[in-house]
Specification:
Blueprint lengths: L4 E6 L3 E9 L5 E10 L3 E2 L2 E2 L2 H19 L5 E6 L4 E11 L9 H11 L8 E13 L2 E4 L9 E12 H13 L3 E7 H9 L2 H6 L1 E6 L4 E7 L2 E8 L3 H12 L3 H11 L13 E4 L5 E4 L1 H25 L9 E4 L9 H9 L3 E3 L13 H39 L7 H12 L1
Parallel strand pairs: 1-6, 6-11, 12-17, 17-18
Antiparallel strand pairs: 1-2, 2-3, 4-5, 7-10, 8-9, 8-10, 12-13, 13-14, 15-16
Protein backbone atom coordinates (compact mmCIF):
# COMPACT_ATOMS: atom_id res chain seq x y z
CA UNK A 1 0.00 0.00 0.00
CA UNK A 2 2.89 2.35 0.77
CA UNK A 3 4.01 2.48 -2.86
CA UNK A 4 0.74 4.11 -3.99
CA UNK A 5 -0.56 7.59 -3.25
CA UNK A 6 -4.37 7.62 -3.26
CA UNK A 7 -6.39 10.78 -3.86
CA UNK A 8 -10.17 10.92 -3.39
CA UNK A 9 -12.37 13.73 -4.73
CA UNK A 10 -15.87 13.70 -3.21
CA UNK A 11 -18.14 15.58 -5.61
CA UNK A 12 -21.86 16.28 -5.81
CA UNK A 13 -22.52 13.71 -8.53
CA UNK A 14 -19.39 11.56 -8.61
CA UNK A 15 -16.64 10.21 -6.39
CA UNK A 16 -13.32 10.16 -8.24
CA UNK A 17 -10.25 8.32 -6.98
CA UNK A 18 -6.74 8.18 -8.41
CA UNK A 19 -3.72 6.02 -7.54
CA UNK A 20 -0.25 7.29 -8.36
CA UNK A 21 3.36 6.54 -7.57
CA UNK A 22 6.72 8.24 -8.02
CA UNK A 23 9.12 6.30 -10.26
CA UNK A 24 12.89 6.03 -9.78
CA UNK A 25 13.42 9.16 -11.90
CA UNK A 26 11.22 11.24 -9.60
CA UNK A 27 8.34 11.46 -12.07
CA UNK A 28 4.77 10.85 -10.95
CA UNK A 29 2.78 8.19 -12.77
CA UNK A 30 -0.98 7.61 -12.54
CA UNK A 31 -1.46 3.86 -12.17
CA UNK A 32 -5.25 3.82 -11.93
CA UNK A 33 -8.22 6.17 -11.92
CA UNK A 34 -11.96 5.59 -11.61
CA UNK A 35 -15.24 7.17 -10.55
CA UNK A 36 -18.59 6.18 -9.04
CA UNK A 37 -21.96 7.94 -8.93
CA UNK A 38 -22.83 9.70 -5.67
CA UNK A 39 -26.20 10.89 -4.33
CA UNK A 40 -25.20 11.83 -0.78
CA UNK A 41 -23.50 15.17 -1.51
CA UNK A 42 -25.22 18.46 -2.37
CA UNK A 43 -23.19 21.48 -3.50
CA UNK A 44 -20.03 20.05 -1.98
CA UNK A 45 -21.60 19.29 1.40
CA UNK A 46 -22.33 15.77 2.65
CA UNK A 47 -26.07 15.43 3.37
CA UNK A 48 -26.23 11.64 3.65
CA UNK A 49 -23.24 9.92 5.26
CA UNK A 50 -24.42 6.37 4.44
CA UNK A 51 -24.96 7.02 0.72
CA UNK A 52 -21.69 8.92 0.42
CA UNK A 53 -19.81 6.18 2.25
CA UNK A 54 -21.28 3.51 -0.02
CA UNK A 55 -20.25 5.46 -3.13
CA UNK A 56 -16.72 5.85 -1.76
CA UNK A 57 -16.56 2.08 -1.16
CA UNK A 58 -17.66 1.35 -4.73
CA UNK A 59 -15.07 3.75 -6.10
CA UNK A 60 -12.25 2.35 -3.95
CA UNK A 61 -13.23 -1.26 -4.78
CA UNK A 62 -12.94 -0.43 -8.46
CA UNK A 63 -9.56 1.25 -7.92
CA UNK A 64 -8.30 -1.75 -5.90
CA UNK A 65 -9.02 -4.04 -8.83
CA UNK A 66 -7.04 -1.71 -11.11
CA UNK A 67 -3.90 -1.54 -8.96
CA UNK A 68 -4.30 -5.03 -7.45
CA UNK A 69 -3.77 -3.99 -3.84
CA UNK A 70 -5.81 -3.27 -0.72
CA UNK A 71 -6.43 0.45 -0.15
CA UNK A 72 -6.84 1.58 3.45
CA UNK A 73 -5.36 5.10 3.39
CA UNK A 74 -5.93 8.13 1.20
CA UNK A 75 -5.66 11.89 0.86
CA UNK A 76 -8.78 13.95 0.18
CA UNK A 77 -9.57 17.44 -1.07
CA UNK A 78 -11.80 20.05 0.50
CA UNK A 79 -14.02 21.99 -1.94
CA UNK A 80 -13.03 25.62 -2.15
CA UNK A 81 -16.67 26.71 -2.25
CA UNK A 82 -17.19 25.74 1.40
CA UNK A 83 -13.97 27.44 2.55
CA UNK A 84 -13.07 30.98 3.50
CA UNK A 85 -9.66 32.64 3.15
CA UNK A 86 -8.41 34.96 5.90
CA UNK A 87 -5.11 36.84 5.65
CA UNK A 88 -2.87 36.92 8.72
CA UNK A 89 0.78 37.39 9.73
CA UNK A 90 2.99 35.26 11.96
CA UNK A 91 6.22 36.44 13.63
CA UNK A 92 8.87 34.45 15.55
CA UNK A 93 12.51 34.81 16.55
CA UNK A 94 14.94 32.37 14.92
CA UNK A 95 15.73 29.72 17.53
CA UNK A 96 19.20 28.43 16.64
CA UNK A 97 22.32 30.06 18.05
CA UNK A 98 23.92 30.41 14.61
CA UNK A 99 20.71 32.17 13.40
CA UNK A 100 20.16 29.66 10.60
CA UNK A 101 16.47 29.12 9.80
CA UNK A 102 15.41 25.48 10.12
CA UNK A 103 12.24 23.48 9.47
CA UNK A 104 11.21 23.91 13.10
CA UNK A 105 11.25 27.70 12.68
CA UNK A 106 8.92 27.37 9.70
CA UNK A 107 6.51 25.25 11.75
CA UNK A 108 6.60 27.78 14.57
CA UNK A 109 5.91 30.80 12.37
CA UNK A 110 3.06 29.03 10.56
CA UNK A 111 1.60 28.07 13.93
CA UNK A 112 1.88 31.71 15.02
CA UNK A 113 -0.05 32.79 11.92
CA UNK A 114 -2.97 30.61 13.05
CA UNK A 115 -3.53 32.74 16.15
CA UNK A 116 -6.68 34.54 15.03
CA UNK A 117 -10.23 34.93 16.27
CA UNK A 118 -12.60 32.60 14.42
CA UNK A 119 -16.35 31.96 14.77
CA UNK A 120 -17.37 29.08 17.04
CA UNK A 121 -18.86 27.09 14.15
CA UNK A 122 -15.67 27.20 12.05
CA UNK A 123 -12.20 25.69 12.29
CA UNK A 124 -8.81 26.17 10.68
CA UNK A 125 -8.22 23.43 8.10
CA UNK A 126 -5.00 24.70 6.54
CA UNK A 127 -2.45 27.47 6.03
CA UNK A 128 -1.11 28.74 2.70
CA UNK A 129 2.16 30.70 3.13
CA UNK A 130 2.26 33.50 0.56
CA UNK A 131 5.71 34.90 1.39
CA UNK A 132 8.30 34.80 4.15
CA UNK A 133 10.08 37.89 5.48
CA UNK A 134 13.53 37.71 7.07
CA UNK A 135 14.66 40.81 8.99
CA UNK A 136 12.48 43.00 6.76
CA UNK A 137 13.44 41.41 3.42
CA UNK A 138 10.28 40.07 1.81
CA UNK A 139 9.17 37.87 -1.13
CA UNK A 140 11.12 34.85 0.13
CA UNK A 141 9.54 31.54 -0.86
CA UNK A 142 11.76 29.05 0.99
CA UNK A 143 13.76 30.49 3.92
CA UNK A 144 15.21 27.16 5.16
CA UNK A 145 18.99 27.44 5.36
CA UNK A 146 19.01 31.25 5.27
CA UNK A 147 20.23 33.34 8.20
CA UNK A 148 18.30 35.91 10.17
CA UNK A 149 17.07 37.05 13.56
CA UNK A 150 13.36 37.59 12.87
CA UNK A 151 11.16 35.38 10.68
CA UNK A 152 7.72 36.50 9.50
CA UNK A 153 5.12 34.95 7.21
CA UNK A 154 2.19 36.41 5.31
CA UNK A 155 -0.28 33.55 5.11
CA UNK A 156 -3.81 32.73 4.10
CA UNK A 157 -5.69 30.85 6.80
CA UNK A 158 -8.27 28.42 5.39
CA UNK A 159 -11.47 28.26 7.43
CA UNK A 160 -14.34 25.82 7.01
CA UNK A 161 -17.44 24.90 8.97
CA UNK A 162 -16.60 22.21 11.52
CA UNK A 163 -19.77 20.20 10.83
CA UNK A 164 -19.12 20.13 7.06
CA UNK A 165 -15.55 18.87 7.52
CA UNK A 166 -16.57 16.34 10.19
CA UNK A 167 -19.35 14.86 8.05
CA UNK A 168 -16.94 14.46 5.12
CA UNK A 169 -14.38 12.74 7.35
CA UNK A 170 -17.07 10.50 8.86
CA UNK A 171 -18.19 9.39 5.39
CA UNK A 172 -14.65 8.41 4.44
CA UNK A 173 -14.00 6.76 7.80
CA UNK A 174 -17.19 4.72 7.44
CA UNK A 175 -15.85 3.47 4.11
CA UNK A 176 -12.89 2.10 6.14
CA UNK A 177 -10.42 4.58 4.67
CA UNK A 178 -7.97 6.45 6.90
CA UNK A 179 -7.47 10.09 5.89
CA UNK A 180 -3.75 10.91 5.80
CA UNK A 181 -4.20 14.56 4.83
CA UNK A 182 -6.43 17.22 3.29
CA UNK A 183 -5.59 19.29 0.20
CA UNK A 184 -7.56 22.42 -0.70
CA UNK A 185 -9.30 21.72 -4.01
CA UNK A 186 -8.14 24.83 -5.94
CA UNK A 187 -4.53 24.08 -4.99
CA UNK A 188 -4.93 20.46 -6.08
CA UNK A 189 -6.45 21.42 -9.44
CA UNK A 190 -3.81 24.07 -10.08
CA UNK A 191 -1.10 21.38 -9.81
CA UNK A 192 -2.30 19.63 -12.98
CA UNK A 193 -4.53 22.06 -14.89
CA UNK A 194 -2.60 25.34 -14.71
CA UNK A 195 0.81 26.34 -15.95
CA UNK A 196 3.23 28.17 -13.65
CA UNK A 197 3.35 31.12 -16.05
CA UNK A 198 -0.45 31.43 -15.94
CA UNK A 199 -0.51 31.47 -12.14
CA UNK A 200 2.19 34.14 -12.11
CA UNK A 201 0.48 36.29 -14.72
CA UNK A 202 -3.05 35.98 -13.33
CA UNK A 203 -5.67 33.36 -14.20
CA UNK A 204 -9.25 32.42 -13.33
CA UNK A 205 -9.83 28.74 -12.67
CA UNK A 206 -13.51 27.82 -13.10
CA UNK A 207 -14.56 24.44 -11.71
CA UNK A 208 -18.08 23.65 -12.93
CA UNK A 209 -19.48 20.73 -10.97
CA UNK A 210 -22.88 19.07 -10.97
CA UNK A 211 -24.62 21.49 -8.62
CA UNK A 212 -22.31 24.47 -8.19
CA UNK A 213 -19.58 26.42 -9.94
CA UNK A 214 -16.48 27.46 -8.02
CA UNK A 215 -14.37 30.37 -9.30
CA UNK A 216 -10.76 30.65 -8.12
CA UNK A 217 -8.59 33.60 -9.11
CA UNK A 218 -4.78 33.45 -9.00
CA UNK A 219 -2.54 36.46 -9.19
CA UNK A 220 1.22 36.58 -8.64
CA UNK A 221 1.39 32.86 -7.75
CA UNK A 222 -1.21 33.34 -5.00
CA UNK A 223 -4.81 32.22 -4.68
CA UNK A 224 -6.49 35.57 -4.01
CA UNK A 225 -10.21 34.94 -4.45
CA UNK A 226 -12.80 32.18 -4.05
CA UNK A 227 -16.39 32.57 -5.22
CA UNK A 228 -19.32 30.23 -5.87
CA UNK A 229 -22.37 30.14 -8.15
CA UNK A 230 -25.20 27.76 -7.13
CA UNK A 231 -25.62 26.40 -10.67
CA UNK A 232 -23.85 23.51 -12.37
CA UNK A 233 -24.12 20.75 -14.92
CA UNK A 234 -27.24 19.24 -13.35
CA UNK A 235 -29.13 22.44 -14.17
CA UNK A 236 -28.56 21.75 -17.87
CA UNK A 237 -29.72 18.14 -17.41
CA UNK A 238 -32.85 19.30 -15.59
CA UNK A 239 -33.71 21.65 -18.47
CA UNK A 240 -33.37 18.79 -20.97
CA UNK A 241 -35.53 16.51 -18.82
CA UNK A 242 -38.28 19.11 -18.35
CA UNK A 243 -38.38 20.47 -21.91
CA UNK A 244 -38.23 17.09 -23.63
CA UNK A 245 -40.18 15.21 -20.92
CA UNK A 246 -37.45 12.65 -20.34
CA UNK A 247 -36.18 10.85 -17.22
CA UNK A 248 -33.21 12.61 -15.59
CA UNK A 249 -30.88 9.66 -16.28
CA UNK A 250 -31.70 9.67 -20.01
CA UNK A 251 -31.35 13.45 -20.16
CA UNK A 252 -27.87 13.10 -18.63
CA UNK A 253 -26.90 10.52 -21.27
CA UNK A 254 -28.14 12.85 -24.02
CA UNK A 255 -26.12 15.76 -22.63
CA UNK A 256 -22.91 13.71 -22.38
CA UNK A 257 -23.20 12.06 -25.80
CA UNK A 258 -24.76 14.79 -27.95
CA UNK A 259 -24.21 17.97 -25.93
CA UNK A 260 -22.59 20.71 -28.02
CA UNK A 261 -22.66 24.48 -28.40
CA UNK A 262 -21.64 27.04 -31.01
CA UNK A 263 -21.36 26.85 -34.76
CA UNK A 264 -18.48 24.39 -34.73
CA UNK A 265 -20.55 21.61 -33.17
CA UNK A 266 -21.41 18.45 -35.10
CA UNK A 267 -24.83 18.32 -36.76
CA UNK A 268 -27.21 15.34 -36.71
CA UNK A 269 -29.76 15.23 -39.54
CA UNK A 270 -31.86 12.36 -38.21
CA UNK A 271 -33.73 12.49 -34.85
CA UNK A 272 -32.05 10.94 -31.81
CA UNK A 273 -33.77 7.86 -30.42
CA UNK A 274 -34.12 7.82 -26.61
CA UNK A 275 -35.49 5.14 -24.26
CA UNK A 276 -38.21 6.64 -22.06
CA UNK A 277 -39.09 3.49 -20.13
CA UNK A 278 -38.94 -0.27 -20.58
CA UNK A 279 -41.46 -0.29 -23.41
CA UNK A 280 -41.39 3.14 -25.01
CA UNK A 281 -39.02 5.19 -27.13
CA UNK A 282 -39.17 8.80 -28.28
CA UNK A 283 -37.30 10.74 -30.93
CA UNK A 284 -35.51 13.95 -29.99
CA UNK A 285 -34.69 16.70 -32.48
CA UNK A 286 -30.98 17.52 -32.22
CA UNK A 287 -31.44 21.25 -32.88
CA UNK A 288 -34.01 21.48 -30.08
CA UNK A 289 -31.58 19.73 -27.72
CA UNK A 290 -28.79 22.09 -28.74
CA UNK A 291 -30.94 25.18 -28.11
CA UNK A 292 -31.84 23.97 -24.61
CA UNK A 293 -28.20 23.32 -23.74
CA UNK A 294 -26.95 26.61 -25.21
CA UNK A 295 -29.56 28.68 -23.36
CA UNK A 296 -28.57 27.36 -19.92
CA UNK A 297 -24.81 27.39 -20.61
CA UNK A 298 -25.08 30.99 -21.78
CA UNK A 299 -26.71 31.91 -18.45
CA UNK A 300 -23.99 30.13 -16.42
CA UNK A 301 -21.26 31.84 -18.44
CA UNK A 302 -22.83 35.29 -17.91
CA UNK A 303 -22.96 34.62 -14.15
CA UNK A 304 -19.29 33.58 -14.21
CA UNK A 305 -18.44 36.76 -16.11
CA UNK A 306 -20.28 38.91 -13.54
CA UNK A 307 -18.50 37.23 -10.62
CA UNK A 308 -15.06 37.72 -12.18
CA UNK A 309 -15.76 41.39 -12.98
CA UNK A 310 -17.05 42.02 -9.45
CA UNK A 311 -13.83 40.68 -7.93
CA UNK A 312 -11.86 43.82 -9.02
CA UNK A 313 -9.24 41.51 -10.51
CA UNK A 314 -10.72 41.33 -13.99
CA UNK A 315 -8.02 43.44 -15.64
CA UNK A 316 -5.26 41.32 -14.07
CA UNK A 317 -6.67 38.05 -15.42
CA UNK A 318 -4.93 36.90 -18.59
CA UNK A 319 -7.28 33.98 -19.29
CA UNK A 320 -9.78 31.46 -17.96
CA UNK A 321 -9.36 27.71 -17.51
CA UNK A 322 -12.40 25.42 -17.32
CA UNK A 323 -12.33 22.15 -15.39
CA UNK A 324 -14.90 19.72 -13.98
CA UNK A 325 -17.58 17.74 -15.74
CA UNK A 326 -20.31 20.39 -15.84
CA UNK A 327 -19.18 22.45 -18.86
CA UNK A 328 -15.68 21.36 -19.82
CA UNK A 329 -16.91 18.17 -21.51
CA UNK A 330 -19.43 19.98 -23.76
CA UNK A 331 -18.25 20.06 -27.39
CA UNK A 332 -17.45 23.54 -28.70
CA UNK A 333 -17.40 25.13 -25.22
CA UNK A 334 -14.11 27.00 -25.75
CA UNK A 335 -15.25 28.90 -28.83
CA UNK A 336 -18.73 29.51 -27.42
CA UNK A 337 -17.36 30.90 -24.13
CA UNK A 338 -15.00 33.43 -25.74
CA UNK A 339 -17.90 35.54 -27.02
CA UNK A 340 -19.31 35.91 -23.49
CA UNK A 341 -16.28 35.94 -21.20
CA UNK A 342 -14.15 38.00 -23.64
CA UNK A 343 -10.94 36.37 -22.38
CA UNK A 344 -8.74 33.60 -23.78
CA UNK A 345 -10.27 30.37 -22.55
CA UNK A 346 -9.22 26.74 -22.56
CA UNK A 347 -10.22 23.44 -20.98
CA UNK A 348 -7.75 22.26 -18.35
CA UNK A 349 -6.99 18.56 -17.93
CA UNK A 350 -4.21 16.48 -16.33
CA UNK A 351 -1.50 15.49 -18.81
CA UNK A 352 -1.31 11.87 -17.71
CA UNK A 353 -2.13 8.81 -19.77
CA UNK A 354 -5.56 7.47 -18.84
CA UNK A 355 -6.43 10.54 -16.77
CA UNK A 356 -6.49 13.30 -19.40
CA UNK A 357 -10.01 14.50 -18.56
CA UNK A 358 -11.14 17.69 -16.78
CA UNK A 359 -13.37 15.42 -14.67
CA UNK A 360 -10.30 13.94 -12.95
CA UNK A 361 -8.42 17.20 -12.30
CA UNK A 362 -9.08 17.23 -8.53
CA UNK A 363 -8.25 13.57 -7.86
CA UNK A 364 -5.04 13.66 -9.93
CA UNK A 365 -4.12 17.03 -8.41
CA UNK A 366 -4.27 15.57 -4.89
CA UNK A 367 -1.86 12.79 -5.89
CA UNK A 368 0.45 15.29 -7.61
CA UNK A 369 0.50 17.62 -4.61
CA UNK A 370 1.33 14.80 -2.18
CA UNK A 371 3.88 13.25 -4.57
CA UNK A 372 5.72 16.58 -4.89
CA UNK A 373 5.90 16.90 -1.10
CA UNK A 374 7.17 13.34 -0.65
CA UNK A 375 9.62 13.73 -3.55
CA UNK A 376 11.12 16.91 -2.04
CA UNK A 377 11.59 15.24 1.35
CA UNK A 378 12.96 12.10 -0.28
CA UNK A 379 15.36 14.14 -2.40
CA UNK A 380 16.78 15.92 0.65
CA UNK A 381 17.18 12.60 2.47
CA UNK A 382 18.93 11.11 -0.57
CA UNK A 383 21.27 14.10 -0.87
CA UNK A 384 22.16 13.82 2.80
CA UNK A 385 22.75 10.06 2.45
CA UNK A 386 24.92 10.54 -0.65
CA UNK A 387 26.96 13.23 1.08
CA UNK A 388 27.52 10.94 4.08
CA UNK A 389 28.59 8.12 1.75
CA UNK A 390 30.95 10.48 -0.07
CA UNK A 391 32.49 11.58 3.22
CA UNK A 392 32.90 7.96 4.30
CA UNK A 393 34.56 6.96 1.02
CA UNK A 394 36.74 10.06 1.07
CA UNK A 395 37.83 9.35 4.67
CA UNK A 396 38.70 5.73 3.84
CA UNK A 397 40.74 6.90 0.86
CA UNK A 398 42.46 9.55 2.96
CA UNK A 399 43.43 7.04 5.65
CA UNK A 400 45.40 5.14 3.02
CA UNK A 401 47.56 8.21 2.39
CA UNK A 402 49.55 9.39 5.36
CA UNK A 403 51.45 12.16 3.67
CA UNK A 404 48.47 14.25 2.36
CA UNK A 405 47.80 16.51 5.35
CA UNK A 406 47.63 20.11 4.14
CA UNK A 407 45.26 20.97 1.29
CA UNK A 408 43.25 17.71 1.47
CA UNK A 409 42.48 18.01 5.19
CA UNK A 410 41.15 21.53 4.60
CA UNK A 411 38.76 20.14 1.98
CA UNK A 412 37.68 17.43 4.42
CA UNK A 413 36.94 20.06 7.09
CA UNK A 414 34.94 22.04 4.54
CA UNK A 415 32.83 19.03 3.60
CA UNK A 416 32.29 18.13 7.25
CA UNK A 417 31.10 21.64 8.08
CA UNK A 418 28.95 21.86 4.96
CA UNK A 419 27.13 18.57 5.40
Amino acid sequence: MNEYIIGIDVGSSKICAAAGKVDKYGRMQIMGITSANCNGVKKGIVVDIDKTSESIKQCIDSLERMVDTKITEAYICLPGGICELVWNKGVVAVASEDREIKENDIKRVLKASKIITIPSDKEIVGVIPEQYIIDGYDKIKDPVGMSGLRLEVDAQIILAQSTVVNNLLKSISKAEIKVLGIVLQPLAISQVALKEEEIQRGIALVDVGAQSTDIYIYEGSNLVSIDTIPLGGNTITNDIALCLKLPFSEAEKLKIRYGSVGEESVSYDSPIEVNVDYNGKVHVDYFMLKQIIEARIEEILYLIDQKIKCSELYEKISGIVLVGGGLALIKGIEGFSKHILEKPIRVGAPEYIGAASPLYASAVGIVKDVADSIKDKGFMTEVKKESEDSNREWTEERDKKDNNNGFVSKIKEFFTDFF
